[in-house]
Amino acid sequence: MKPFTVHTGLVAPMDRANVDTDMIIPKQFLKSIKRSGFGPNLFDELRYLDEGQPGADCSQRPLNTEFPLNFPRYQGASVLLARENFGCGSSREHAPWALEDFGIRCIIAPSFADIFYNNCFKNGVLPLALDAADVDRLFEAMYADEGYQLTIDLERQCVIEPDGRETGYQVEEYRRYRLLNGLDDIGITLEHADAILRFEAQAREARPWLFDAVGAREQTS
Amino acid sequence: MSGRTLYDKLWDAHLVETLDGGSALIYIDRHLLHEVTSPQAFEGLRLAGRAPWRIDANLATPDHNVPTDKAERSGGVDGIVDPVSRLQVQTLDDNCRDFNIVEFEINDHRQGIVHVIGPELGATLPGMTVVCGDSHTATHGALGAMAQGIGTSEVEHVLATQCLVQKKMKNMQVRVDGTLQPGVSAKDVVLAVVGKIGTAGGTGHAIEFAGEAIRDMSMEGRMTLCNMAIEAGARIGLVAVDDVTLDYVRGKPFAPEGELWDAAEQDWRQLHSDPDAQFDTLVEMRAEDIAPQVTWGTSPEMVLSVDSRVPDPAAIADESKRRAVERALEYMGLEAGQAITDIRPDRVFIGSCTNSRIEDLRAAAAVVRGRQVADTVKQALVVPGSGAVKAQAEAEGLDRVFTEAGMEWREPGCSMCLAMNADKLGAGEHCASTSNRNFEGRQGFGGRTHLVSPAMAAAAAVTGHFIDVRSLASEGGDA
Ligand code: SF4
Fold first, then answer.
1. CA–CA gap between residue B463 and residue B275 (Å, rounded)
2. B211: which DSSP letter?
3. pLDDT value, residue A219
4. Residue A143: its pLDDT value, please?
5. CB pairs under 8 A between A and B
6. Confidence (pLDDT) at A174
7. Which residues of chain B neighbour A199 with C-beta distances below 8 Å?
8. Does ligand 1 have an atom closer than 6 angstroms to the CB of B113?
9. From residue B362, how far is each of A171, B68, B265, B408, B455 by CA, in Å?
10. To bridge B454 with a disulfide, which of A160, B276, B303, B364 should be the other Cys (CB 3.0-4.6 Å)?
11. Do A192 and B58 touch (CB under 8 A)?
């Protein structure tokens, strides 16, 4: 998982309430054996005019030019500005996978659905709940200013606007710690790497038959 | 200090570190992989730029999706007709190639169901911790190994760290003393255990199977027993190491040899519960009391002796239990109070990680030999658990016994156990199956599964209805 400390990026709008996970990534894409590669199908039914099929080449599909994420001015956005109850619906982790794969690092909204909120933290995406009034103000500023960027500082827990104005927020401490350090569960276990190596060395000494029997694959090329 | 159980000893020997909040880091010796639960885990490694912690701890084979039909199989991966299955198998091949992991690919003679090939190759050994993204990993506990199923995120965790974060479970002993009657097998014992303690009876426990009847069992039988510990709610099933274990392991391809074997044997001889060890829960049964079992419902605990009648909901006072029985009878298309011997299977499936080892096939062949599959049975499939089992069975001529009786002899894989490949039940069809789960739709949409032993499945195949295999033997034939 990528650490999240301070991030500055272009802001794009998802200007509607109750964006559900079906909207974020439609069901036909859950058949995938992968956990990456969902980015081209993020908001699939809104972004394209045809029906998306798993495995289809999205670069050939007709784009919905009225959908803001398709506007040239929002290309390369990494901060998504959204409305109430973002991410409601199913528990599919494919939703944060798709956002992350698309390049979104932070979602700012007045509120988030519970499970989606949780899932984001597991995947290096920061869901940031700000007062509705603050979100309104950010929407206006973004629409008024092409190339509008925000800086999200997780260490100091504030959003910094282009004019230097800072808005504070709170993220639960243990979630903040994991995200700041880019720690998933594997990352946390790997903090004990020395202990694992020590154990392994002792085990190799005491029970050598547990090691090397299967070996590695022979390289054919 | 009181003695330790086998589970305690295995836990202690693999404890890397105790973590805050009662969890612990447990070191994993063997990680088995198959095509269904591994793709996202490999993908996770790739995304994080991580390498497997210890490549030689891993071993992979495709089993769930592979076709068992010889013609379809002959084309290898590319010949798999269903594109989704093909992609999953191909993905396993690619991942193993990319990460340097040893894999027995679809037509390798060592390919087979993960839980069959692990022990038969000596890739799973006594005293190991074994994990796989599959709940029937408990099977390997028959060797005196701490073996358990894990989810995909844990597959990734084990690949990356060689550890599992876990809380210690409680100890349960299931003790079966006495001697099993001829015709009664490990499958009947474990079905009787599940019937007695229920599918949640072992929740939160590691079950150690002990007692005279267990000590008398072959390794194949012990694997059948541990395989279904999960159907009793326990993630782990165990049997203590004894001469039967050591004789089984000796000479296996990946097992230690020479001095290494001697050292290992000394270590493995300690793998039993101390006489004064304390168990949190104790279940006792007499072997003589166990008759051949048949499940009649949609949960493994809905099981009875073959001479019984299915329950009558009207006789059940408890409302929720009555409803569960009613629902199960309806799904299964059975009449209240109907004799189990009146149930007529449309198909018979002999296979799965529960019962596809050589001894299982021998038991089935002994019943089938010189008989014919009944006209009312549409299909009787025999699916060996691995390439090695298949070769051994063919060397013994068992394949011919089956085919001459009108059964189909297939290539190794999970097959109709979960119907991810082309082997499926039709809606409403009854199946005498040697697999482990009789959930609704498990063997195909609308399919009706009756779990039985290999001998009982064979007996149902040749008579067209469930029958006590012991009475079939006395009717004549070679059984
Ligand atoms: S045979 Fe059945 S239970 Fe065993 S691993 Fe395969 S699908 Fe799972």
1. 47
2. S
3. 62
4. 97
5. 105
6. 65
7. 16-17, 27
8. yes
9. 63, 20, 30, 15, 9
10. B364
11. no
Q: Is the CB of B456 under 6 A from ligand 1?
A: no
Residue minimizing CA distance to atom 6 of ligand 1: B414
Measure the CA dihedral B185/B437/B62/B250, to 10°: -20
- Which residues does residue A149 pair with via DSSP β-bridges, in sequence order? A10
Best mutation target, A209, A218, A220, to test chain B (most B CBs within 10 A): A209
Closest chain B C-alpha to A212 CA, distance in angstroms: 5
Q: Determine the pLDDT at residue A34.
A: 77
For residue B455, the tally of other CB atoms under 10 A from its CB is 31
- CB count within 10 Å of CB B320 equals 8
Tokens representing B19? 């973590």
CA B148 to ligand 1 centroid distance, Å: 14
pLDDT digits (tens, 9 = 90+) for B261-284: 999 999 999 999 999 999 999 999
Ligand 1 centre distance from Cα of residue A7 (Å):
46
Neighbour tally for B228: CB within 10 Å: 29
Query: How far is residue B442's CA from residue B433's CA, in Å, rounded to a whole number?
Result: 11
Radius of gyration of chain A (CA): 21
- What would the pLDDT profile of B164-188 be if each residue is shown by its tens digit? 988 899 999 999 999 999 999 999 9
Alpha-carbon span A1 to A178, nearest angstrom: 10
Residue B302 per-residue DSSP state: S
For residue B161, the distance in angstroms to the closest alpha carbon of chain A comes to 7
**Residue B442 or residue B86, greater confidence:** B86
Q: Between A1, A185, A209, which is nearest B264 by CB? A: A209
Alpha helices in A50-93 (DSSP H): none
For the stretch B396-438, pLDDT in tens is: 999 999 999 999 999 999 999 987 778 889 999 999 999 999 9
Instruction: Look at the pTM and tell me if it is higher than 0.95.
Output: no
Q: Is B157 in contact with B45 (CB distance < 8 Å)? A: no
* Contact at CB, A35 and B55, closer than 8 angstroms: no
Write the burial class of residue A39 (CB in 10 Å: 0-12 exposed, 13-18 middle, 19+ buried): middle
Q: Where are the alpha helices (DSSP H) in B305-384?
A: 319-332, 358-368
Pick from A31, A36, A196: which is nearest to B84 by CB?
A: A31
Q: Do B40 and A33 touch (CB under 8 A)?
A: yes
Gap between the Cα atoms of B26 and A59, Å rounded: 46
Q: Nearest residue on chain A to B262, judged by CA atoms?
A: A209
* Å between A22 CA and nearest CA of chain B: 20
Model pLDDT, residue A83: 93
Query: Does the model's ipTM exceed the 0.85 cut?
Result: yes
Task: Determine whether the interchain pair B162/A212 forms a contact, defined as Cβ–Cβ distance below 8 Å.
Answer: no
End-to-end CA distance of chain B: 51
Integer Cα distance of B440 and B54 in angstroms? 39
Give the atom of ligand 1 at the shortest distance from the alpha carbon of B417: 2
Q: Choose from B16, B31, B260 for mutation: most chain A CBs within 10 A.
A: B16
> In this predicted structure, what is the pLDDT of residue A6?
97
Report yes or no: A50 and A117 within 8 Å, Cβ to Cβ.
no
Query: Are B172 and B202 spatial neighbours (Cβ–Cβ below 8 Å)?
Result: yes
- Rounded to 10°, the helix B114-121/B219-227 angle is 140
Asked whether residue B474 carries a pLDDT value surpassing 70, the answer given is no
CA distances from B271 to B7, B216, B462 (A): 9, 17, 42
> Which ligand 1 atom sits closest to the C-alpha of B385?
1
Best B11, B17, B82 residue to mutate vs chain A (most A CBs within 10 Å): B17
